[in-house]
Amino acid sequence: MKAFNEKIYSNVKKKTHKLIGIIGLYDVNYIGHAAHLSITIGEKKDRGKGLGTEAIKTLLKWAFDELNLHSICLYVFSFNTLAIQCYQNIGFKVIGTKRETYFTEGKYYDEILMDILRTDLKE
Fold first, then answer.
1. Which residue spans within 42-106 are E strands per DSSP?
2. 10-residue averages of pLDDT along the chain (123 residues)
3. Using the 8-state DSSP alphabet, how is residue 46 labeled?
């Protein structure tokens, strides 16, 4: 079994077997029943199709039911509005903001902290 600080789930296109994204848990705390989630959908053309939502829901169900976790959090940059909307639709809530921590193309962006509890997960 892979270590939990490694990526543990990937989404592959069925016809081409091309990797389109990676998702995983890290900093799993079994005593506190908490972890961090990380997800990347590589190419823009693969985004907005529900693949990330499906992968996140699958991972969360496994994390809550099999690992007995209670809280999972993630960080997302403020410019990534598609991801923020996806997370909120699943049940994640904004719990904090690290202001202007990311600089790209001449502009600063906030880093948003979101979390979800087992009871927040929308089926």
1. 71-77, 93-104
2. 42 64 93 94 68 89 96 96 94 97 96 96 77
3. G
